[in-house]
Design goal:
- With 219 residues, this protein is an alpha+beta fold.
- It contains 6 helices and 11 strands.
- The strands form 5 sheets. Strands 2-4-3 form a 3-stranded antiparallel β-sheet.
- Strand 7 and strand 8 form a beta hairpin.
- It is elongated.
- Mean pLDDT is 82; it is low at 1-5 and 77-83.
Length: 219
């Protein structure tokens, strides 16, 4: 019995172009849950970053490469008056930290992000799109298996839907965590002696003065 085929033609050539020189990979809630259940989340922590965009806060898998700080015109003040530097350590383009360039293999292929499972398919506002129209896999004459295409579509839509959900949830979690840290700090300070409080105040003043000197433009 022959397999049912779809009209979409794609076959991964394992060339690595989508892993060697690319931007951050959007992460879904499913990715975090999967990595936690497989007990590999600790290995991913150094590369998971919070990125702020017009759509809100989101999680991404950061690339390896040179970090580009945001331009002064792109920095936005936060509610407490400080500059918001979320995403300042995001690598605009680089190699995926999970990609073995020599062997052209993914170190977490069985547990790779939903975005990677769906690639080169993406999903935006009700429509499926091609994320990389120069992908060599699109040049194949072989039509993709219908069941595999369905899985790719499901993963692409999951990334999109989870992105919106994370955009709503992350700011709330961020506020709760900051509030908990502030309360813990207040409790710790209430137990400090006057001498220790004075030492901390002197230290903070010194750090502030040093920062002010560093921020001064060089002549």
């Amino acid at each position: 019995m022959s397999e049912t085929k779809s009209k979409f033609k794609f076959s991964c050539t394992k060339c690595g172009k989508c892993c060697e020189d690319r931007g951050p990979v959007p992460l879904s809630l499913h990715d975090i849950e999967l990595w936690a259940s497989k007990q590999i989340i600790k290995n991913m922590f150094p590369y998971i970053k919070i990125r702020k965009s017009d759509a809100g806060l989101g999680l991404v898998l950061n690339m390896l490469g040179e970090k580009a700080p945001p331009k002064a015109s792109e920095k936005k003040p936060s509610e407490d008056g400080d500059e918001d530097d979320l995403g300042a350590d995001i690598v605009p383009k680089g190699k995926c930290p999970m990609y073995n360039k020599e062997g052209k293999t993914c170190l977490i292929h069985a547990n790779r992000p939903a975005y990677c499972r769906a690639f080169p398919l993406g999903y935006e506002d009700g429509s499926y799109v091609i994320e990389m129209d120069t992908c060599p896999g699109l040049e194949t004459k072989d039509e993709i298996n219908k069941d595999l295409l369905k899985q790719m579509r499901d993963d692409a839509k999951r990334v999109f839907d989870d992105g919106h959900q994370l955009g709503l949830v992350l700011p709330v979690l961020q506020a709760l965590i900051i509030n908990a840290m502030q309360e813990a700090s207040m409790r710790a300070m209430s137990r400090m002696s006057p001498e220790d409080l004075q030492k901390m105040e002197d230290l903070m003043k010194k750090m502030s003065e040093e920062k002010g000197k560093q921020d001064q433009p060089s002549k």
